[in-house]
From TrEMBL:
It comes from the Bacteria. The keyword Transmembrane applies. This is DUF1624 domain-containing protein. InterPro entries: HGSNAT_cat. Keywords: Membrane, Transmembrane, Transmembrane helix. The chain crosses the membrane at residues 50-71, 92-108, 114-135, 142-159, 198-218, 230-249, 255-279, 291-314, 342-360. Residues 10-159 form the Heparan-alpha-glucosaminide N-acetyltransferase catalytic domain.
Length: 368
């Protein structure tokens, strides 16, 4: 067992976590049939938490951890911050541009364009967290995160929704939705509200901050076992705090509530702690290959899934699309419809693994 107090420059557990998170994202985004999906593989309609709801905040947490690993060394080397800012802004714009491209395919209808999405939020969180990391200590980052969560909670629960005259936290009728209706350009995901809207982006930044704090811990001089203990204990405590906060400010992904940030960041911390113990301390790495391959080109794999979906979900072959042929065929042979839909989702993940594997074997790592 490794007992060195020096943190490795690259964690296999973090790469594995990133890759499995992307694989899970592809799986839930592309069921065989939208009509047949297991409840936990859907987003909650409003308050509550499913497996699917954990995926996006876990990825933002990973973004935060990666920022700590990427920029700690540069700060130690006294790299010019001007150069770092330039790279951060360029990378954010690249991710944002790819997000806009995915929103436009396949029809490129600019009159019906959505300006928000998963990659858009990742770009904003990366930009804000990276700049914050370069200019603050971990204590200041923790304070900033806490202040954002408290202010968001107070704003959402004390400021009456304009036009309603009372505090409301219902779909399309809340302060965040009102702000989006007034100031968010383009199409909104749910007509009159958007889960990646303006106001809810602020607490999503805290999901990245919690990852930066975890990354700072992993880079500290304490022993690996102590790092695991801190990740697990802190994760459990933060999750519990989020649960109790949720009794007065419900856990809600669509609003990205403060309680949602704590519950999901706590889960992500425990997930990383478990992987770090199994993979990096016990060196049980044989099962991590899929995660490492997807993780090596995480955003590329995510984008490729949307592109391949044009063939596997949109293009017709005969009177049906490929996913409809597959799901209907399994149902006709006796498979439970939701199981048939899930199996196709897993097949689609496997299909996306092929180009990711080719890129990995050729040592091609596309960094947006």
């Amino acid at each position: 067992m490794n007992t060195s107090s020096e943190a490795p420059s690259r964690l296999i557990s973090l790469d594995t976590m990133r890759g499995f998170t992307i694989a899970a994202m592809i799986m839930v985004n592309f069921p065989g049939s939208e009509e047949y999906v297991f409840p936990t593989l859907r987003h909650t309609k409003w308050n509550g938490l499913t497996f699917t709801d954990l995926i996006a905040p876990t990825f933002l947490f990973i973004v935060g951890v990666s920022i700590a690993f990427a920029y700690t060394k540069r700060l130690q080397e006294n790299s010019p911050k001007t150069d770092l800012y330039k790279k951060i802004v360029i990378r954010s714009l690249k991710i944002l541009s790819v997000g806009m491209f995915l929103n436009m395919i396949p029809y490129f209808d600019f009159s019906d364009l959505r300006y928000t999405g998963t990659l858009h939020r990742i770009a904003i969180v990366f930009l804000c967290c990276a700049v914050l990391f370069l200019n603050t200590t971990w204590k200041q980052q923790a304070v900033a995160g806490a202040v954002i969560l408290v202010l968001y909670w107070l704003a959402m629960t004390l400021i009456p929704t304009p036009g309603v005259g009372a505090v409301v936290l219902e779909p399309g009728i809340n302060l965040a939705a009102w702000i989006d209706q007034q100031y968010l350009p383009g199409k909104m995901w749910q007509g009159n509200w958007d889960p990646e809207g303006i106001l809810s982006t602020f607490p999503s930044i805290v999901s990245g901050i919690t990852g930066m704090l975890a990354g700072r811990l992993l880079l500290s001089k304490i022993t690996p076992n102590e790092k695991v203990n801190y990740l697990m204990a802190t994760g459990l405590s933060v999750t519990a705090l989020g649960y109790f906060w949720g009794l007065i400010f419900p856990v809600n992904e669509n609003l990205w509530t403060s309680s949602f940030v704590l519950v999901t960041s706590g889960f992500a911390s425990m997930f990383l702690g478990a992987l770090y113990f199994i993979v990096d301390i016990l060196s049980k790495k044989g099962w991590t290959k899929m995660g490492i391959v997807f993780g090596a080109n995480a955003i590329t794999a995510y984008v490729l899934a949307d592109v391949l979906a044009l063939v596997f979900y949109i293009s017709s072959f005969g009177d049906k699309t490929l996913n409809q042929h597959f799901v209907d065929g399994l149902i006709n042979t006796g498979f439970e419809p939701r199981l048939a839909s899930w199996l196709y989702a897993l097949l689609f993940v496997a299909i996306n693994f092929i180009p990711a594997w080719v890129l990995y074997k050729k040592r091609i790592f596309i960094k947006l």
